[in-house]
Write a sequence for this structure.
């Protein structure tokens, strides 16, 4: 039985979700949600939602149309005194924005609806690493709370008919101990689909703080979506200038080097990671590379294309290249990739001119459902 207050609570939650969905594009392109992330929840500020509340008046304020008094008598405080403000500091709390906690799963579902993202069908057969307990068998012993009514009734009915005790004119079926049947669980193997996300970023001198913030925001939403599609996600981070190295997440978003750019060094490291730790028959592999489009030479770009074509594409579900606008970058690499792979389904390229372009870029990256 659902009480009225519970219905009101769920209705209010639906209103909140509706407001979040209306403003989701704004949240996607801003970075404040990343700092509000807990273990499985996000705190979202909704200043436009008013929470219903009671107001209590002061005692002995007088009634309306009751008691003694003459025409023109002021009831309570009013007039000029009530309308004018005061220069003294107050001691009452002010208005605050409503912060609503939303699970990452709910946020991913809203994101899917807003961006029209297809569900991902994981490749491979999955790795059986867990089992779920399901009440799929029947036993003759168990607790009364798990007694199977229909099976118990059938056993009692069969017994009474077999012994000639059943009277159709008085169909009173009373089960005895040996008639009772109980639900019982047994472990059912559950395959888990694993995904490895390899983030690659150019940290040469032309990639500034603004470009890294764009990468950080976009990566958060990519993570949110992919984690809703897979049971087990692992993330690896590679940075590169003229040389590549693997780092932790914090270093990935805050490192800045002053050297040149050699993209092939990062692709070689990604290939090594996949070869040694993520066999493609067991893992769904995603690569996301962010750069401003500069590379050391045309020869290195040719090497990158060979690494993608012969080593990364055959193993990966998807390779996404996001070119972040920079006043110092040439922007040539995205042109080279589009020219080299005009029909390749495994690659998605996206130009990200500013934070407002994050919304479109996420849809381009994840819209294939791979």
């Amino acid at each position: 039985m659902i009480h009225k207050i519970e219905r009101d609570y769920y209705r209010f939650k639906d209103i909140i979700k509706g407001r979040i969905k209306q403003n989701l594009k704004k949240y996607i392109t801003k970075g404040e949600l990343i700092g509000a992330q807990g273990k499985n929840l996000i705190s979202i500020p909704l200043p436009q939602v008013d929470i219903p509340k009671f107001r209590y008046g002061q005692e002995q304020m007088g009634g309306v149309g009751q008691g003694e008094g003459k025409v023109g008598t002021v009831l309570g405080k009013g007039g000029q005194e009530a309308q004018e403000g005061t220069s003294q500091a107050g001691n009452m709390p002010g208005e605050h924005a409503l912060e609503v906690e939303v699970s990452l799963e709910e946020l991913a579902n809203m994101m899917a609806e807003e961006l029209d993202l297809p569900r991902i069908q994981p490749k491979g057969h999955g790795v059986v690493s867990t089992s779920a307990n399901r009440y799929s068998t029947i036993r003759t012993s168990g607790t009364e709370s798990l007694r199977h009514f229909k099976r118990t009734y059938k056993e009692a009915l069969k017994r009474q008919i077999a012994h000639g005790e059943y009277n159709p004119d008085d169909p009173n079926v009373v089960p005895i101990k040996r008639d009772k049947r109980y639900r019982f669980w047994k472990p059912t193997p559950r395959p888990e689909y694993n995904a490895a996300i390899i983030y690659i970023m150019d940290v040469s001198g032309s990639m500034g703080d603004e470009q890294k913030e764009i990468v950080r925001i976009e990566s958060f939403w990519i993570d949110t979506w992919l984690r809703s599609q897979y049971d087990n996600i692992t993330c690896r981070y590679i940075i590169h200038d003229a040389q590549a190295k693997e780092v932790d997440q914090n270093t990935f978003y805050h490192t800045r080097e002053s050297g040149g750019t050699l993209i092939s060094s990062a692709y070689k490291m990604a290939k090594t990671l996949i070869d040694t730790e993520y066999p493609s028959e067991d893992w769904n592999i995603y690569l996301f590379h962010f750069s401003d489009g500069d590379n050391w030479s045309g020869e290195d770009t040719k090497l990158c294309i060979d690494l993608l074509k012969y080593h990364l594409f055959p193993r990966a579900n998807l390779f996404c290249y996001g070119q972040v606008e920079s006043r110092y970058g040439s922007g040539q690499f995205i042109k080279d990739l589009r020219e080299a792979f005009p029909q390749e389904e495994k690659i998605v390229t996206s130009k990200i001119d500013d934070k407002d372009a994050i919304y479109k870029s996420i849809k381009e990256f994840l819209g294939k459902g791979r």
Observations:
- The CA atoms of residues 33 and 44 lie 7 Å apart.
- The mean pLDDT is 79.
- Residues 128-190 form one domain.
- The chain has three domains: 4-52+97-115, 128-190, 193-366.
